[in-house]
Amino acid sequence: MKVDKPNQEERNDQMCRRIEVDVVVDQRDFLSPEPELLPVAGEDLSFIPPLNFSMVDNGVFRSGFPDSANFSFLQTLGLRSIICMCPEPYPEANMEFLKSNGIRLFQFGIEGYKEPFVNIPEDTIREALKVVLDVKNHPVLIHCKRGKHRTGCLVGCLRKLQRWCLSSIFDEYQRFAAAKARVSDQRFMELFDTSSLKHLPMSFSCSKR
């Protein structure tokens, strides 16, 4: 029985098929490794700042109302004091955090009314400013519910003491209040009388405009 030998063309075709298979196998060595899985929230210690958190000046910070998710972050600030501008009783979990970290609470309750019923007591802001200006209370965190209006007014009045121009004060206020900015808040800051506080030192301040 005669067996036909493959001609040159058939041999070349078989060789090409073999090379194609080899190439497919070899390509597997160049596949990207499986991506690393990111840690799930809660598996590692997280440092999450409160809503609207920002530094105001040396030793002075501002934010919205902190909750338990923010405690690890707040510990990194080494706070001595917290100024709360809300009238509601301070949450038990927050009080425990303050006690365990030796943080003093100053509460100046101002109701969070909406316009046109906003009433910001000037005396309350003045007393809160005295706490801010006393470096023995630093580092200090100022907060209200969302870190916009009541906190914004207190910081704005501090800026007046620091001799910021009104346009810069309003710009900062609007940056945090955004679409919720209130004309009444800005009017309050404009008319706030700082004369009774000008004798108090501001040795901590690095901010002048």
**Cα end-to-end separation:** 106 Å
Can you give the mean pLDDT? 81
The coarse overall form would be globular
Number of DSSP-assigned strands: 5
Please trace the helix and strand order, writing H or E for each element.
HEEHEHEHEHHH
Structure description:
The protein is of the alpha/beta class. The protein contains seven helices and five strands; from the N terminus they run H-E-E-H-E-H-E-H-E-H-H-H. Helix 4 (122-133) packs across helix 5, helix 5 packs antiparallel against helix 6 and helix 5 (149-161) runs parallel beside helix 7. The radius of gyration is 31 Å and the shape is globular. The termini are far apart.
Summary of the model, kept short:
The protein is α/β, with parallel strands linked by helices and 209 residues long. It has helices at residues 8-27, 71-75, 92-100, 122-133, 149-161, 166-177, 183-191, and strands spanning 54-57, 60-63, 81-84, 104-107, 140-143.
Provide the descriptors you would attach to this structure in a database record.
209 residues, alpha/beta, five-stranded mixed β-sheet, 5 strands
